[in-house]
Amino acid sequence: MLNQLKKYLSAGQIVEVIYQDRYGKISKRPLRLQAIEGPRIKAYCLTRRAPRVFHIDNILAVFPAGRDRMSG
User: Fold this and answer.
1) All domains of the chain, ordered by start, with CATH?
2) Distance CA 70, CA 21 (A)
3) Do 44 and 30 form a contact (C-beta atoms < 8 A)?
4) Which stretches within 12-53 are classed as H helix?
5) Which domain of life is it from (predicted)?
6) pLDDT confidence bin for 67, thresholds 50/70/90
C-alpha cells in the first residue's frame, strides 16, 4: 500500500481510497495526496473540501480517481 501511495503522490495524481475509520465505518473518498509522514498521509479530501490525515493501516484500497477497481 505504501509503495502505491508514494507512486501516486510523486505523480500528483488524485486517488480514491477506501478507508476504515477508528469506529469501523468504511468510506470511499477522493483525495489529493500532499505528504506521507510515518504511518500517516496528509491529503486534501475532495468530499469534505478540507485537509485530512489518514492512517495508512486503515486504507483498505487505493486507485486512480475516476477509475472503478472492478472495471479495470
Assistant:
1) 2-64 (2.30.30.100)
2) 23
3) no
4) none
5) Bacteria
6) low
